[in-house]
Amino acid sequence: MWKATAALLALPCSCALAQSSVTLYGIVDAGVNYVSNAQTARTANGLKGGSQWSVMDGATGGIQGSRWGIKGAEDLGGGYKAVFLLENGFFVNNGAAAQGGSLFGRQAWVGLATPYGRVTMGRQYDEVVDFFAPLLAAPQWGGYMVEHPSDLDNASNTRRANNAIKYTSPTLSGFKFGALYSFGGTAGSFGKNSIWSAGMGYAYGPVNLGAGYLKARNPNTSFFGNNPNSGAATTNNLGGLGSATTAQSNPIFAGFASAQSLQIIGVAGSWNVGKATVGVGYSNTQFQDLGSSSGPNPFHYTGTATFHNAELNGHYQFTSAFSGGLAFDYTTGGGTAQKSSAKYELASMGLDYALSVRTDVYSLFVYEHASGTDSLNQSAVATITGMTPSATRSQVAIRLGMRHKF
What we know:
This protein is mainly beta.
């Protein structure tokens, strides 16, 4: 009797499990990095720095940030599914939590997938990340060091959108589009701290095209300041001036924390010929209406600071296991906020060898040169993404890394 009852009770559970799935996955990326010059202090006599060797996680100096996540789907019938994803970022070199200590700082969302598209809610990537970024060198093969200076256009998803609702369409004749809105949650002001984004992609044969747009109100808190360790509007969440004992942070745009809004536009394309892929990309990043109460403004900037960024990249699959990539990126910034424009030239090379389907070893070489005046009202210094800024106009970074996916 008891055996029969237990068998009957088990039947509904077996059916439910057959229509649902939950997957544990992750990436561990670690390597040894060399930097020719890294700041150590800002003194009255100028910036101080020296060469540096270190073991670094992929999130700061490699191809991909280390992570683990859980994703799942439940079939609701008729082509509808309930879906969710929880993704944690961590630093493999010391075990610390990434994204300011967030438990699921990379992504955390739940939603509904239908034949007409997917709607999700939570902490998510914007549409610049979804449609523009995949055609650039950094997300494809180069990682964070190859990214545009300080990831100024968020193409390496350094920053996420909290409290966001997002729609992603199905692919229709090669086209796909999406839109996101992040609620600011400020009583009495619907638009304050809000973010909205839209994007579109097209793929046909060897051609891929993508474009993304993002507009963030009060970016110092809504976009740069949405991690647990971030500060209020009186804190500069974009970066810092440094001190007699600490290095500067993101000098390319740290002086623009008082922007009323941030606007990013990115367009990119790639063409595949046999084993070779060639890509181009352009982004326009604007810190608009400087001098607002959104963040500190130590240099009393007004107007708009604009950055133009252009990238040319190439990738070649020498064998099924061995591949390599080259990229050149040029950034110029300035506008009414600065007396002169800063310029950044970035040359990158990467080699990758797959030991198996899930494990590879790789090397990266990156050189950056800066000129002009940066956002901290100083002679611009080289700022390879993920590395401590240089004390000089030039910086070289080299990495030997290993990545495992599970």
